[in-house]
Design a protein that fits this description.
Radius of gyration: 14 Å
Number of helices: 7
Strand content: under 5%
Distance between the termini: 6 Å
Helix content: over 70%
Shape: elongated
Order of helices and strands: HHHHHHH
């Protein structure tokens, strides 16, 4: 079960995330679960497979905002890296970065 402590242990800046949720732990945890379950992760994967880097950029940039607001720092850093790669035109290594994003997403969801 995901807890504030497990998120801290996984590298999230929980204090910052909680401050955005008025200090309400239950609300913050609900938002984290919702953010990590966003359909944009799946749509981003599809866009990368189709090499539609423009659409992938938009989806990735959206996820960057969500994950950043939740202060899931390790995941945020990976999404930032992919966003910048896509901003500069994409490329084959985008799939590798996305794989690391997916692993981190699953890690958080398994807490």
């Amino acid at each position: 079960m995901m807890t504030i402590e497990s998120l801290k242990d996984a590298g999230a800046n929980v204090e910052e995330g909680l401050s955005r949720c008025l200090g309400k732990e239950d609300f913050y945890l609900k938002m984290v679960r919702m953010g990590l379950s966003s359909q944009n992760f799946g749509l981003l994967e599809e866009s990368l497979k189709e090499k539609d880097y423009g659409r992938a950029f938009e989806l990735c940039h959206s996820l960057k905002g969500v994950v950043g607001n939740l202060s899931l720092t390790p995941l945020y850093d990976l999404i930032c890296a992919l966003t910048e790669k896509l901003r500069s035109g994409g490329g084959e290594d985008c799939v590798e970065i996305f794989g690391r994003i997916t692993e981190m997403q699953k890690r958080y969801l398994s807490l």
